[in-house]
Amino acid sequence: xxxxxxxxxxxxxxxxxxxxxxxxxxxxxxxxxxxxxxxxxxxxxxxxxxxxxxxxxxxxxxxxxxxxxxxxxxxxxxxxxxxxxxxxxxxxxxxxxxxxxxxxxxxxxxxxxxxxxxxxxxxxxxxxxxxxxxxxxxxxxxxxxxxxxxxxxxxxxxxxxxxxxxxxxxxxxxxxxxxxxxxxxxxxxxxxxxxxxxxxxxxxxxxxxxxxxxxxxxxxxxxxxxxxxxxxxxxxxxxxxxxxxxxxxxxxxxxxxxxxxxxxxxxxxxxxxxxxxxxxxxxxxxxxxxxxxxxxxxxxxxxxxxxxxxxxxxxxxxxxxxxxxxxxxxxxxxxxxxxxxxxxxxxxxxxxxxxxxxxxxxxxxxxxxxxxxxxxxxxxxxxxxxxxxxxxxxxxxxxxxxxxxxxxxxxxxxxxxxxxxxxxxxxxxxxxxxxxxxxxxxxxxxxxxxxxxxxxxxxxxxxxxxxxxxxxxxxxxxxxxxxxxxxxxxxxxxxxxxxxxxxxxxxxxxxxxxxxxxxxxxxxxxxxxxxxxxxxxxxxxxxxxxxxxxxxxxxxxxxxxxxxxxxxxxxxxxxxxxxxxxxxxxxxxxxxxxxxxxxxxxxxxxxxxxxxxxxxxxxxxxxxxxxxxxxxxxxxxxxxxxxxx
Amino acid sequence: xxxxxxxxxxxxxxxxxxxxxxxxxxxxxxxxxxxxxxxxxxxxxxxxxxxxxxxxxxxxxxxxxxxxxxxxxxxxxxxxxxxxxxxxxxxxxxxxxxxxxxxxxxxxxxxxxxxxxxxxxxxxxxxxxxxxxxxxxxxxxxxxxxxxxxxxxxxxxxxxxxxxxxxxxxxxxxxxxxxxxxxxxxxxxxxxxxxxxxxxxxxxxxxxxxxxxxxxxxxxxxxxxxxxxxxxxxxxxxxxxxxxxxxxxxxxxxxxxxxxxxxxxxxxxxxxxxxxxxxxxxxxxxxxxxxxxxxxxxxxxxxxxxxxxxxxxxxxxxxxxxxxxxxxxxxxxxxxxxxxxxxxxxxxxxxxxxxxxxxxxxxxxxxxxxxxxxxxxxxxxxxxxxxxxxxxxxxxxxxxxxxxxxxxxxxxxxxxxxxxxxxxxxxxxxxxxxxxxxxxxxxxxxxxxxxxxxxxxxxxxxxxxxxxxxxxxxxxxxxxxxxxxxxxxxxxxxxxxxxxxxxxxxxxxxxxxxxxxxxxxxxxxxxxxxxxxxxxxxxxxxxxxxxxxxxxxxxxxxxxxxxxxxxxxxxxxxxxxxxxxxxxxxxxxxxxxxxxxxxxxxxxxxxxxxxxxxxxxxxxxxxxxxxxxxxxxxxxxxxxxxxxx
Lengths: 645, 645
Description:
The structure is a homodimer. Chain A is α+β, with helices and mostly antiparallel strands. Chain A has three domains: 429 residues, Glycosyltransferase, CATH 1.50.10; 92 residues, Golgi alpha-mannosidase II (Immunoglobulin-like, Sandwich), CATH 2.60.40; 110 residues, no CATH class. Chain A has 18 helices and 25 strands. In chain A, strands 3, 16, 17, 18, 19, 20, 21, 22, 23, 24 and 25 form an eleven-stranded mixed sheet that branches. In chain A, α3 runs antiparallel to α4. About 1% of the residues of chain A have low confidence. Chains A and B meet through α16 and β25 of A and α16 and β25 of B.
């Protein structure tokens, strides 16, 4: 892939956080160098068993370089792999010899821990070698190796480290030797989907179609009868480490109820569901499987039209971290795992690679500016697993059914999937700006950047997005390049204008893109002016939780009310339908500049038979970007605000 | 206690259900004669282990009259005792030789199962005799024996069966021999409060103050350090039957965090909390313990002012079936266990016996006409454990965090505390109409009835309450009786009028009572006219869930919208502030006549920036009594309705 240099202040800030804070910090956690308070994701009571990460140590023990027992969750290895993947993207962006040396060492450690046949899962190597691949619905072996394959590909691409890719190939070959339609192989598929998308990436990188065929086999096999998971579960000898000693979860939780092509509703554990879709789209593209793609697109529609929050969050219930049913989007009990929003970004990208449509970019952008980065504090060292849309600190403290809704971002989690997932997404955000077809360059994101394309054209985007909607596209080329540049015009931009070489041009869109077909060279200049007027968003009325409420957005950014600005009892505030929304550039409140929005509002005076008719005071409501919440004194927060006439 | 004959159509109907349906039905369940689908209370998945009741069989095994293993919950015995108590009140009301013979047989069985020292708990007798009283925070031994003591007292009073009382006395003596301040005794108290209130009743019946002293000791000891529960838990050898193998619950769950006099907030498991208060008030009255009474009254205020639903339901979270925090009253995730509302009625009665105040009667009435009887279908054979204020059947089916919110009443429960608790309350409702002091007869409820008092006066109340607010009090006496009749004037009755012997008289109230001091005889006639205009109730604005909403009440009855009358999407309906509320007598919809309320309403047309401003149609909203919901086609229900201008 051609190199993209990100110059955008917004993302440069986040990428700097990843490079300077998250990567060193996460290393100190996974290598047990830091004394970090580890929080469990679902409970205010830390699990005594997860007091430190031990993830690197598990690899050392498996490699014979240390002694001791395995420690942590079954998927502890994946924390290392996701860290490594984030490192890879960071090194691709900006060389760092010391970091590369450290990562090379981790690659060598992983190689040492890998068994001769390619198998690598430290839990089973240390604790239960006799149970390898015997209970994959639960075991996360395929999930962990999938994450390594992604990391190995990225690290090889960034640094040329051949060992990184060799490990991945050996893993995939090991899995290929054990799983497949042939007699004597396991006719199975991952408990936590992830390997499918990793195998598809490996097929792209190596050109070996057997990896997409293996992924396709796993996708085809999933949910069929006789059911593989049920068979393994029946035969399984559980250890004390089992989550599911009390019984396997429902097949729907594991997306194993029916074959994937028969799913018409996103169901079960949200991250599993969306990772599965990422793999489905990628494999469908590679194998030309139209029915697989159709199923994935149907589920994309279900999610984005009926099961997604305005922030891009998915997973409406904490029970199973799962999808529930259409239009069920409660704001204060939801899950909205950071990983699930990352997964939605991955899925949008796969769809854009398959079939460019503006709607995919619209959701990609919704995730990138809202539901993903809300998972990280502005210090880069504290993280949300759960991203609520309404928070009452007293409820989080005193109602156990809301204890998963944290009011401040913990330093780390016993189940630490989210922080490194977000790190790898942010570190690779440059890869989401464009996709290409034979005759068209598609521009999905308005991230300030310079990118050189294979056709000889270099495109530079300048601007201060998302705070400004004014963007300038300039070009460089040895000689003029005749091509089509298709720029996504966001659905939210009501009044978009543009100029080409200083002349106003009308914008027509098709599939969400404005297509400019011409000769591009250094004399070409396009300006694009997106409509950044703050706006009210109204939910589908079938979403009961949002009835009578609005959320406020500006550009791609979702806003919220926070107690720090608006005082307590946020539910007592309302926003009149006619109240003007005013923007201010705020460079002092947070460690990064943001645009805030204010509006004259109402505050409930007391009990009212009709809603909000009386006003004790007429406060100014201050809305801040949702991603920036919980960076000040802990307090209430809400995205959806009562509207009044 | 003098006999009260209930003539009231409303309560006669319920009492007939208890006599003719609930008691035979519940007998068939506890004696395993019926093949009933047993539902667990918290989960849509039945617990495989509780497929039938086995409660009588457990007693037979403990008595040596049958062989086999114990089966069911630890507190299975209590289902028999509560059934027996309901039988007692029913026999007191109307003799039934066959039923009495059956109940006499159960008493004999219980006597046979009781050990020579008075101990009786079939779980420990059958399974673990070595662990008697060794882990009382969890074991329910004291809870079960408490329930027997209540039943024995009631059965003895109703039938004169001496054995019934002897068993109770032996149990209390056994507990007295094991618990107390003396060296060598256990310095403990019940895990599930109940015994305290039973011991207080036994002290009243026997005159033996040692029982109130034992109860007082247990109340005084609770929550002190070193903590008894913690000490026992540390030493406990758990069996596979333990709920709490994973660790004891928080001390607050068990009302064991601080001494009871230091509690300023109702906390933990709601039924435990309120049963504890019932015992506190009764014991405080018996022992003249002012600080104990003050603590109970403070907690009553906390509950009724800050933690009680409009229906009288308490217990805002399903996690631990517990209280949460002030003004936290979500309508669709709450617990509101039927038993907890029964407990609130018991508590109100104890407070009325101690210190007559209208507010206690107001809450008593709220419980009796709403949150208690909503626990039973109009057929008397289906029951709610959880009494929601808003129901969406799809959410109950598809969101596991709402699976405890049933849409239809199950036939029975694995944990079957509620159905027999409601039966004994309804069967004894005659005991809640009056209390007496030396010079005053207090009338708390407007239940049509005739009661003969010790002073020679007989009072008859005629009316058709709660459907009509017109009540007539007539009197009979051998010779005129000079006394004070104090009639509670409900706080909700805005315009109350009355006549004495045909002459309109002004009503003045003190502590919620209208006091009439005079000579009463057969020539005396009082008419009372309560204001039965339907009214809107507005919640405290700190109750976020009810912001912008109203509930509709008429007299003591809370109303609700049901899908059967109003179509789907109940949250789309709103009630204009100015809309008149009209009443209709409806004798056809349900098996009992009810008064329904209609009003011109609005239905949301579609997405709206401001709430409910557009109306696709102007439907007539039909409100039915809350207690009658879920007796037709399953569907949505809600008590709180959006108000609009």
